[in-house]
Amino acid sequence: MHIMVTNDDGIHAPGILALAEALRELGTVTVVAPDRERSAAGHSLTLHSPLRVFELRDGFFAVDGTPTDCVNMGIHSLLPVRPDLVVSGINHGPNLGDDITYSGTVAAAMEANLMGIPAIAMSLATFERHGHFDAAAQVAVRVARQVLTNGLPADTFLNVNCPDCSLDEMQPPLVTRQGMRSFIGKIVDKTDPRGRKYYWIGSEEPDFNDEPGTDFYALNRRHVSITPLHLDLTNYESMKILSGWQL
Ligand code: MN
Question: How far is the CA of 84 from the centre of ligand 1 (A)?
Fold first, then answer.
């Protein structure tokens, strides 16, 4: 088995290292990750500037681009074989609810899914410096083993979020749906030392609706949350309504 690891926190992030190390149990691991933090890069692709690649050590590549660039570089150029699985993570911070549309972690898994490769986005729900990355890495190995053994349904990739606790304290994984954020982002404006205004987006901790069945609900109760995602954003119900319009 060949597994590619990536994420948006940058090649030196503890989550990437813990994940790459743990997944070696299942096969050969190649890491292709941004050379610096690129969180909230979403699904952006670099088209108007060149990309540089630095091989830091064997099977460890830093790219001066986005997570989506890394998946493209890894699969079309850097990996010796087409991988059996792409795992993006372990992200430093949760990827829940509608916030996943901003996520570089989820976008990398999405990109692999677009290429027909099974993919998992893996996040640890903490912003603490010393989170339980090793416990989350063990969860990642378990989920990855299932994906490698059973495959995934067509047009499906996984968004996995782990509570920040030891394996003993962790509740069993729940299959969940994508929740919803309940807070509208605020913009803070301040003045810089040269007297010019600057603005900062999203200064508050996001809050989610604690609805049963959602990713947020599961995580709040120390369950591992596993949400199957797909890329068809079509609202099929609305198609019926719109087809009645006089256009
Ligand atoms: Mn990140």
Answer: 23
Over residues 128-182, the pLDDT tens digits come to 889 999 999 999 999 999 999 999 999 999 999 999 999 999 999 999 999 998 7
Q: How far is the CA of 95 from the centre of ligand 1 (A)?
A: 9
Distance of CA 119 from the midpoint of ligand 1 (Å): 17
| All domains in the chain, ordered by first residue | 2-180+209-242 (3.40.1210.10)
Cα–ligand 1 centroid distance for 104 (angstroms): 7
Q: In sequence order, which ranges of the chain are alpha helices (DSSP H)? A: 14-23, 67-73, 104-114, 133-150, 215-220, 236-242
CA of 51 to the centre of ligand 1 (A): 20
Per-residue pLDDT reduced to its tens digit, 8-55:
999 999 999 999 999 999 999 999 999 999 988 889 999 999 999 999
Of 59, 68, 65, 6, nearest to 30 by C-alpha is 59
pTM above 0.90, yes or no: yes
Distance 1 CA to ligand 1 centre (A): 26
Residue of 71, 81, 76, 25 whose CA lies nearest to 45: 71
